[in-house]
Write a structure and sequence with these properties.
By secondary structure, the chain is an alpha/beta fold. It has twelve helices and seven strands. The chain has a single domain, classed as P-loop containing nucleotide triphosphate hydrolases (Rossmann fold). A seven-stranded mixed sheet has the order 3-4-2-5-1-6-7, sandwiched between helices. A hairpin with a 5-residue loop joins strand 3 and strand 4. It is globular.
């Protein structure tokens, strides 16, 4: 199976879905031939952005991630081509019900990279399913008090998934996201770096209008505004992500 990365967060509004979409775009820019996005969030925000709300509303369970979670169908059976060449999507399902200890069947797409978007409630079975399926996980954090308060809960979840169920799972790190020029954001970022050290990404993602505009247009920011500061930082975050994953894999081999 190709490298499979889950994005998780304890609360909504951390730009998890946007980050997932934009990392996919950066991967395509970097030369990855086929990127598969898997929407496991019952809000289906990623699916609505890429396919349109009307299309998503008309999907039956067997055409979505629901069938993949139940292992009745593979990702290849339900994946759809988006408006971005080489970017495929396994659509979400509003009433997604994930069996206990389910592992996604992600065969059949020829994907070179898989990114999984998850619901904001880490107690949701969909999150556990994504972690059981993944090689690595990354967590966006908004540098505000509630964002920092969610970190220990994410850590406990990752330890349970990694130690008990998926020994290969690598934590790639925390991405400081939606950063603004606020004293509170600066303080919280410094606190994250002091408490969590090298697990915090060097590159931070700003709060920029380009991200929302791109999502509204149904494409990654690297497609919508390829020369924008938002697109440039997205590529840097993507490069850092894969450097971190490569280093972890090398340590495991050694």
């Amino acid at each position: 199976m190709p490298p499979t990365i889950s994005l998780i967060a304890r609360k909504g509004g951390s730009s998890k879905t946007t980050t997932c979409l934009n990392l996919a775009g950066a991967a395509r820019d970097d030369g990855t031939p086929v990127v598969l996005l898997v929407d496991m969030d019952s809000q289906c925000s990623l699916s609505k952005a890429l396919l349109g709300a009307d299309v998503v509303a008309g999907l039956r369970p067997h055409e979505t991630v629901q069938a993949v979670a139940e292992r009745n169908r593979t990702a290849g059976d339900v994946a759809r081509q988006t408006n971005v060449p080489g970017l495929l999507l396994v659509p979400g399902y509003p009433d997604l019900t994930v069996p206990s200890d389910a592992v996604l069947c992600l065969d059949g797409t020829d994907a070179n990279l898989i990114l999984i978007d998850t619901p904001p409630d880490i107690r949701d079975k969909a999150v556990r399913c994504a972690l059981l399926t993944s090689h690595a996980v990354v967590s966006p954090v908004v540098p505000e008090p509630w964002g920092l308060q969610s970190v220990p809960e994410v850590q406990r979840l990752l330890m349970a998934a990694g130690v008990i169920s998926n020994e290969r799972l690598v934590f790639a790190g925390w991405i400081i996201s939606m950063v603004q020029r606020l004293a509170m954001h600066t303080l919280c970022e410094h606190t994250m770096r002091r408490l969590h050290g090298a697990t915090v990404f060097t590159n931070t993602v700003p709060h920029a209008a380009s991200f929302k505009e791109a999502a509204g247009a149904g494409v990654p920011v690297t497609t919508y505004a390829p020369k924008s500061p938002a697109a440039k930082i997205t590529r840097k975050v993507y490069d850092e992500l894969f450097e971190r994953i490569s280093q972890s894999m090398q340590r495991e081999v050694a």
